[in-house]
């Protein structure tokens, strides 16, 4: 009995001009639907001749655009110029000219060693050189006398050979002592280590009074005005990267800002134990806000083309005849075969043939819409 009452109510509603609109099959949000006959626009028109209503977001008006292919990267900001200052020879640190975080100028004294011990060592080596030089002079004079005596057969050949050996040994000793004196002289000269360039002290490994051995690390100096990002690129993507390509990076701590740069260098070999290549990106930082060690994420512009017709991948359909799109023209859906090109970032596909600028293309994956179906864009 209730079923008959519901049927009669439905017939009565249809008789008064009302029509219940059902969502298009396959549309999760009911975006496409038959226009209600009760609005008056299509009153009295058979349902099969009524247009399906499409939302603006379900279609796209084609227009030439500039499309770009970008490679996502991440890495660390590093100073371009960084030097570790080391002790040329051992000694006691007598004075330090800068602390961590302090700026210095090229030529500023950074580390000075106690010169008393170094000067004493140099004096000792120099005295040994002078003593050996004197012994060598006497040995050569003796050799000359023995050579003259040997010419008159007064001195034996054995005496002559012995004099020559003594002179040669002393010459070798003198050469060695002169080299040691040169090292001591260089150590005294290098007792002061000066900044090789304008920069900031990043670290300091010694304090006043400590003894530093030869080649020990003393300070690390960096140039904060020249920074670059070192990012890792998979080996399969390296052929797409070239010096000069533009990059856009976002830096931790500088939220909401984009730092521009360009590819400077590409390492020739992969990092040990990985299939990644280091790529160095020069950064534009006129305000000096970047710091070494900051984490960076962004993209490298691999390719860019202007005046290209492209569609989202969701607009493409395929059947036994090949790829096609659905175009809305004069209130009706049309099937348009297309020739596709390269796939670009953002899920866009280049369309080389089959559509033109100004065409309205259905981009939403709505099953049930096909060639010949009447449709219109709501509000359009």
From TrEMBL:
Parts forming coiled coils: 129-180
InterPro entries recorded: Beta-barrel_RND_2, BSH_CzcB-like, RND_pump_MFP
Cellular component, GO, one term: efflux pump complex
Domain of life: Bacteria
CzcB-like barrel-sandwich hybrid domain: residues covered: 87-223
Keyword Coiled coil tagged: yes
GO molecular function, one term: efflux transmembrane transporter activity
Domain CusB-like beta-barrel intervals: 236-299
Keyword tags: Coiled coil
One Pfam family per UniProt: Beta-barrel_RND_2
Keyword Thylakoid on entry: no
Similarity section: Belongs to the membrane fusion protein (MFP) (TC 8.A.1) family.
NCBIfam families for this protein: RND_mfp (TIGR01730)
Entry protein name: Efflux transporter, RND family, MFP subunit
